[in-house]
Amino acid sequence: MMLGGCGAAEKRQALMSAPAAATAPDPVQTAAPPPDPAPATPAPAAPAPAGQAAPADPVINLLNRVNAIYGAGVKDYDAGNLDQAKGEFDQAVGLLLESNLDIQSNDRLNTEFNTLVENIYDMEIGALERGGALSSHAYEPAPIESFAGLTFPVDPNVRERAQQELATVTSDLPLVSNDFVGGALAYLQNHARHYIETVLQRRAYYGPMIEQTLRQQGLPGDLIYLAAGESAFNPFAVSTKGAKGIWQFMLGTGEMYGLRRSHWVDEREDPVKSTQAAARHLKDLYNTFGDWFLAMAAYDWNPAGVQKAIEKTGYADYWKLRELNALPAETENYVPVFVAIALIAKDPQAYGFQVPDAPSMAADQVTVSEPTDLRLVAGLIDHPVEDLVRLNPSMLTWVTPPDPSGFTLNLPAGTKEQFEQAIAAVPPNLRKWWRAYRMEPGDTVASVARKFRVSPVSLAEANRLSAGGAPDAGAHLLVPLGRVSEASLVRVHERQVVRARRYRVRPGDTLELVADHFDVTPYQIRHWNHLRSSKLAAGSSLTVFVPVPVRSSSGSRSRRRSSARSKRRRIPAHPKPAHAPASSPAAR
Predict the structure, then answer these.
(1) Is residue 369 assigned to a domain?
(2) Secondary structure of the chain: what % helix, strand, coil (to 5)?
(3) Could you give the CA distance from residue 511 to residue 89 in angstroms, rounded to a whole number?
(4) Which domain holds residue 117?
(5) Last residue of some domain: 446, 467, 489?
């Protein structure tokens, strides 16, 4: 776990002052509990023979060890030794998770675990805030969630126009026109105009890359409009359940298709890599169902859910499943919205939209072999750092990851040569600490040193300046900032705590499906439950430690959760003004 946090002296003290041997131990169940439940109160232990020590209680022994390591971590944290504290906090949590004791069933262990995690989390936040370098992606809600449960009124004029358009547009997917599609078209035209305008603008930017990737995988290029519905082509779209990126991957599914999530990067937010993963995922779904609309439904919901709906109704047809209400509320609108967006995007003017001018996704790429701060890069190429964040949306820190094979960094088009010449002057081991400053008229070495709170001597030495020398206006000065905590390099920090959850395995469950449901990895589930294989037995229980946002949010995606049906909301039959209401996807 990453170190950061705010002062939590009161809570830290509460954990550290937990009695060690003065309190009678709680009953403990092992990872495989006996058939009969443990008694509410332990029977009194038989006295130990004379001269022989009483048997040690495993809960007390474990908590003593955890508290000792945690206490050392608190001392290092207070002393500013954050890297050392991080290791000690990780070790304390690991002792609890890797023990053979059932944390969930034992009240004391469960309370101590939750307190430990919350305390460490508080300190994480405080360390990050003191670092002064914390910022965040401009995360936006995933628009697909706004369509869940809507009942679209049918406009006969829109439906007739859609039927006419189908005769004139070309598509490599079987687009259809029916009341469901006509209702979605009417909604998008009348209540979500800004959303469609955003889709059209971002499609001009990301479209060529996505369509090329789809066709390289032998897939229909019109699958691009799935990404339009999922995220409006926004790499920073996030669902209420944590699905991220243009293609809205959950952590487990993303991992299955090669998308890494680490301290440094979240490749679900990488447009190129997530598109490659989505193409492979969609190909697998089509090979399973043999029908693109069923494959789309499985992408939104999950393959097992779609298969069960087919078996229950006897219909392997998306539209029939929709008529029979065999799909979750969101999935019922998923395909109609997809078809409606595709029809509009193929002929925007026919539906009252303008074709926007947008820059292409063209960028220069360089391979960075040493951890390098984006703020240094921005200074060297005279671009706002926001440009680099936009071009490298998968990065969670200010610094490129320490990848022995090199990290591919996207730069604004036309800046590669300038970067390569300028970065050569920065010592490789200092590229995550130093900055670059462009001299303005009237600047001196002394004034720049005061601005960055470094000594004029060190500034002159870093730039090999003679005594009294100063670069001309427009030249770059390298600024040798001192090393600070690694935590200050974190750019995106999601405020979450962890709660233990119990899950009973159902028939047909796989490790991957359970992991995807809780947005964790299969490895974590095996690690937490000491599983020797990936096979799950129906009826058995699993313990899963689930991240819980500090500020809870309402709503969720159908494929990200259980398939409980949302309460339906009916869209007014009479159109509202052309701008989108705040509650529509246009407000994203």
Answers:
(1) yes
(2) 45, 10, 45
(3) 28
(4) 9-32+54-131
(5) 489
